[in-house]
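Problem: given the chain below (253 residues), write out its structure.
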Amino acid sequence: MFNLQGRVAVITGASSGLGMQMAHGLAEQGADVVLLARREDRLRKVAEDIEGQYGVKAYPIPCDVTQLASVQAAVQAALNRFGKVDILINNAGIGSVMPAEKMDDEVWEHNLSVDLTGVFRTAREFGKVMLEAGYGRIINISSMYGMVGNSATPASAYHAAKGGVVNLTRALAAEWADRGVTVNCICPGYFETELTADTLKTEEFKAYMERTVPLKRYGNSGELNSAACFLAADESSYVTGAILPIDGGYTCV
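Solution.
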């Protein structure tokens, strides 16, 4: 079960963090992976590591999800290399932390451009390929902050965009359900990445997690992979429109 051999998976934001982790997770299950991000040098290193560890094909493509031409070029490059795309993990994102009253329109619009419009644009362009083939698995990465507010860090634009991803997932799932394409959403909680490690390991944030996360810790590298593989699998054909929090229980209390 959940064998992904013969499948081609595209992962955005794959040069580091959760995107890189999920790329490893799908490759470990046998999928060939197409790695998208802006940092080409980092992508090439991730591709080399994946091919060396799992014996699958890993294809790095520089891509900026805020630019339609860049996304369309990535679609064509993936098709030229593999002839199909079966799985898309929409992971590329940013997050601006600042009080709402100090947030100007430019910051707000940039967050929505990457975290929401970028998700829609990428799902639409790769979705066209999947709809034509009559098969596809789209997994949008939102956040637990797309489901609830928070009292730790002010990030209203991030909350708004990630909340939009949650309901965009439901809309696309309903629209494409009878055409062979499932659309689901993962909402990660606090995970250690190169961007978050310093904050998560502070005594102040450890105390905050003790109060707010039932498991009383942040997520470790790889703890998102099982959900990605589950939603990407052939066996999950009856799962669509699901919103899956992986947050140590943060949103259940």
